[in-house]
TrEMBL record:
CDD domains: GH18_CFLE_spore_hydrolase. GO terms for biological process: carbohydrate metabolic process. It comes from Marinithermofilum abyssi. This is Spore germination protein YaaH. It comes from the Bacteria.
Length: 393
């Protein structure tokens, strides 16, 4: 029986026209994440949209429905427009365990800058999803290391923040917390751990689930303001679960490339599972891509964010050839605008989504987290349900 199974798999493999996965190239660092400046190897016409196209490590293996496992799913929501936020929740929350409201911003004195979240919270509950409060050190368009340092070192500010978090969660009906402090001074790593050691048990004692967001690291020695202060082992120990921000290698200020290339995501997961229990790891995934104007120049015009549906519609309207990068497991295409400028677009489709779902299965992770709701990717949700059973509380 084993021999027949092996022969069967080999036959499928030969018929599927696979492309072997390559090792990632040299890496630079973006302001928020690592990025990959390497060229686009093994670009081939896209052959599949969710069908079986096997690769060496299984990135594109479509699992049949009987293999579905129960996972938790998270969708981050930016409710800047209350009416649009309700629409975004209604569109996706039935496929989500949690809707994460980004974000209540901490001030240096421990106060919180609130969101207009009442309508979206009601929609979240109607869709039987858990509303998650996200607190950040975000201020004036970026994450503030000064606000974080003040919270970590001023006992009265820290206490005030914790009390405010618990008050808001009770008043608004949030049932889970995510602490997303980023761009922290590397020297504040121990201080950040100490803050988490104070806030998470307090919030958990009130009956809420607690989690943190982690920058994508591939070693404990990875330094810098976006990585150095994030202690994977400590977060894995003290939180109910962690969310790995495994995206933004391709970003608005960087060179054209996949937003979440599979080799880089693998590097992060390979490290994460050595420090954090697998059942506590939620892998991040993008619901968007970017449109770059060429030639790319550092400090030049930023790339424009584009939804998967927008990208596919653009390619269809212009009869463009969509290509697929077998190493990074992402689609891309080129076009020329009305001003004669050439563009390069990287985005997500069913094939790239399937590659990410396979990582969740292969590594035995708790689930997947999406940044950000409101980006139109309708084909993602039925494919998600084909692969997994979504946990609902």
């Amino acid at each position: 029986m084993r021999r027949i199974h092996i022969i069967f798999l080999a036959t499928i493999f030969l018929l599927s026209g696979c492309a072997w996965n390559q090792k990632p190239g040299a890496q630079d660092k973006s302001p928020r994440q690592e990025t990959n400046q390497s060229a686009k190897p093994e670009a081939v016409p896209m052959k599949s949209k969710g069908r079986e196209v096997r690769t060496k490590r299984g990135e594109n293996t479509y699992r049949v429905k009987r293999d579905r496992k129960r996972i938790e799913t998270i969708g981050f929501l930016e409710p800047t427009d209350p009416r649009q936020a309700v629409s975004d929740v209604n569109e996706s929350a039935k496929n989500l365990t949690y809707v994460s409201f980004f974000s209540y911003r901490a001030k240096s004195n421990g106060d919180l800058i609130p969101l207009k979240d009442d309508a979206a919270l009601a929609a979240t509950r109607r869709n039987n999803a858990v509303p998650m409060l996200v607190i950040t050190n975000f201020a004036e368009g970026n994450f503030s290391p000064d606000i974080a340092h003040r919270i970590f070192t001023d006992r009265s500010a820290s206490k005030r923040l914790i009390n405010n978090v618990i008050r808001v969660m009770k008043q608004k009906g949030y049932r889970a917390l995510n602490v997303d402090f980023e761009h922290i001074r590397e020297a504040d790593r121990t201080l950040y751990n100490g803050f988490l050691e104070t806030i998470l048990p307090r919030v958990k004692k009130e009956g809420y689930l607690v989690s943190t967001a982690l920058a994508p690291k591939n070693s404990d020695t990875q330094a810098g303001p976006w990585h150095g202060a994030h202690d994977y082992a400590f977060h894995g120990k003290i939180a109910d679960f962690v969310i790995l921000m495994t995206y933004e290698w391709g970003w608005t200020g960087g060179p054209p490339m996949a937003v979440a290339p599979i080799p880089q995501v693998r590097n992060v997961l390979d490290y994460a599972v050595t420090k954090i229990p697998r059942k506590k790891i939620v892998m991040g995934a993008p619901l968007y891509g970017y449109d770059w104007t060429l030639p790319y120049r550092k400090g030049g015009p930023p790339a424009k964010r584009i939804s998967p549906k927008e990208a596919e519609d653009l390619a269809q309207q212009r009869s463009l050839k969509i290509q697929y990068n077998n190493r990074d497991q992402a689609p891309y295409f080129y076009y020329t605008d009305t001003n004669g400028k050439k563009h390069e677009v990287w985005f997500e489709n069913e094939q790239s989504a399937q590659a990410k779902f396979n990582l969740v299965k292969e590594y035995g992770l708790r689930g997947i987290s999406y940044w950000v709701l409101g980006e139109d990717f309708p084909s993602n949700w039925p494919l998600l349900k084909k692969n997994f059973i979504i946990r609902k509380f």
